[in-house]
């Protein structure tokens, strides 16, 4: 028996919603304790951090929602398919436009971890759509839980007025987050899984958290490099040579736009 299996069997009944919560409990604690999420909890989120996060969220939700839409009639997707209530892509586009202007699409740049996460979503959308529930659960129920507090912190930290720049956190189609989460859990529990597929879905949920943790860590690395580069004058030569290397790339144009010097040795950066 592997670790996710034993935890699910020990701690919970047979409902998928309970099992998924139990097997991802430790991963949730680790996600909360990433540097980026800790900055959030301390109310120390900067505009640079937030803009970078929005770019990654856009690519993640683009993949997730395209795959959910394409598989909307699949028996394991249909019960948890709530585009009216949950879809985030349009809101993310509007938030990005708020910060980057009408040419925002050209400014989207994400680290390698985001690219890997989106690739995994597309892969399972094609070969195992029944596992999409694990990813939809991880993102949407997270957004409807701790995510609601993060929205308020973002607004306060960045001094934003109204919903401008923070539409991502707002769910106009959901009147009560708690009641909606209950409905969502009951829909998850109605999916008919074989034992093997149920186990695969639980493993995929743990993976979904890992992908998120990797994205936060990569974003933090991009941000730390900026701070180091701007505080360490000795890096000027290296920084200049890197600028030459990246000078014609959209990644650098983006990086300069958000105030980052790209010294991404060993970390892929993808511009779309
Ligand atoms: C600052 C960081 C975070 C805080 C403070 C936070 C806080 C919370 C809280 C208070 C709940 C409600 C627990 C309950 O109702 O029992 C929750 C649930 C949840 N969170 Fe987070 N969270 C954070 C980050 C994340 C991240 C990064 C993810 C995943 C990407 C995530 C995914 C979830 C999920 C899926 C649930 C629903 C659990 C369930 O009811 O099954 N959270 N979070």
Could you list some keywords that capture this structure?
two-stranded antiparallel sheet; 272 residues; 14 helices; binds protoporphyrin IX containing FE; mainly alpha; Heme Oxygenase, Chain A; Haem_Oase-like
Topology readout:
Layout: H1 3-11, H2 16-23, H3 25-32, H4 35-41, H5 47-70, H6 83-86, H7 89-100, E1 109-111, H8 112-127, H9 132-143, H10 146-158, H11 177-190, H12 195-231, H13 236-246, H14 250-258, E2 269-271
Antiparallel strand pairs: 1-2
Helix pairs in contact: 1-2, 2-12, 3-12, 5-7, 5-8, 5-12, 8-12, 9-12
Question: Would you kindly provide a brief summary of this structure?
Answer:
The protein has helices spanning 3-11, 16-23, 25-32, 35-41, 47-70, 83-86, 89-100, 112-127, 132-143, 146-158, 177-190, 195-231, 236-246, 250-258; strands at residues 109-111, 269-271. The protein is mainly alpha-helical.
What would you note in describing this structure?
The protein has a single domain (3-271), classed as Heme Oxygenase, Chain A (Up-down Bundle). 68% of the residues lie in helices and 2% in strands. It is built from 14 helices and two strands, in the order αααααααβαααααααβ. It has helices spanning 3-11, 16-23, 25-32, 35-41, 47-70, 83-86, 89-100, 112-127, 132-143, 146-158, 177-190, 195-231, 236-246, 250-258, and strands at residues 109-111, 269-271. Helix 1 packs across helix 2 (16-23) and helix 5 runs antiparallel to helix 12 (195-231). The relative contact order is 0.16. The structure holds protoporphyrin IX containing FE. Protoporphyrin IX containing FE (HEM) binds at residues 21, 28, 31-32, 37, 40-41, 137-138, 141-142, 145-146, 209, 212.
């Amino acid at each position: 028996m592997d670790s996710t299996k034993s935890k699910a069997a020990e701690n919970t009944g047979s409902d998928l919603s309970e099992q998924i919560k139990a097997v991802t409990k430790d991963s949730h604690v680790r996600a909360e304790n990433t540097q980026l999420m800790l900055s959030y909890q301390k109310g120390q989120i900067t505009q640079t951090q937030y803009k970078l996060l929005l770019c990654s969220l856009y690519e993640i939700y683009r993949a997730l929602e395209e795959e959910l839409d394409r598989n909307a009639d699949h028996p394991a997707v249909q019960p948890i398919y709530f585009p009216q209530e949950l879809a985030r892509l349009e809101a993310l586009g509007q938030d990005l436009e708020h910060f980057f202007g009408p040419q925002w699409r050209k400014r989207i740049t994400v680290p390698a971890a985001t690219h890997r996460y989106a690739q995994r979503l597309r892969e399972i959308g094609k070969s195992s759509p029944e596992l999409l529930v694990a990813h939809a659960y991880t993102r949407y129920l997270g957004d409807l839980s701790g995510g609601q507090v993060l929205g308020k912190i973002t607004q306060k930290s960045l001094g934003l007025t109204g919903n401008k720049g923070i539409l991502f956190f707002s769910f106009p189609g959901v009147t009560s987050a708690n009641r909606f989460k209950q409905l969502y859990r009951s829909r998850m529990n109605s999916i008919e899984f074989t034992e093997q597929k149920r186990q695969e879905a639980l493993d995929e949920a743990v993976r979904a958290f890992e992908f998120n943790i990797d994205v936060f860590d990569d974003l933090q690395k991009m941000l730390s490099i900026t701070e180091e580069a701007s505080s360490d004058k000795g890096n000027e030569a290296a920084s200049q040579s890197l600028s030459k290397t990246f000078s014609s790339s959209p990644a650098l144009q983006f990086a300069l736009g958000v105030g980052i010097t790209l010294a991404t040795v060993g970390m892929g950066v993808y511009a779309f």
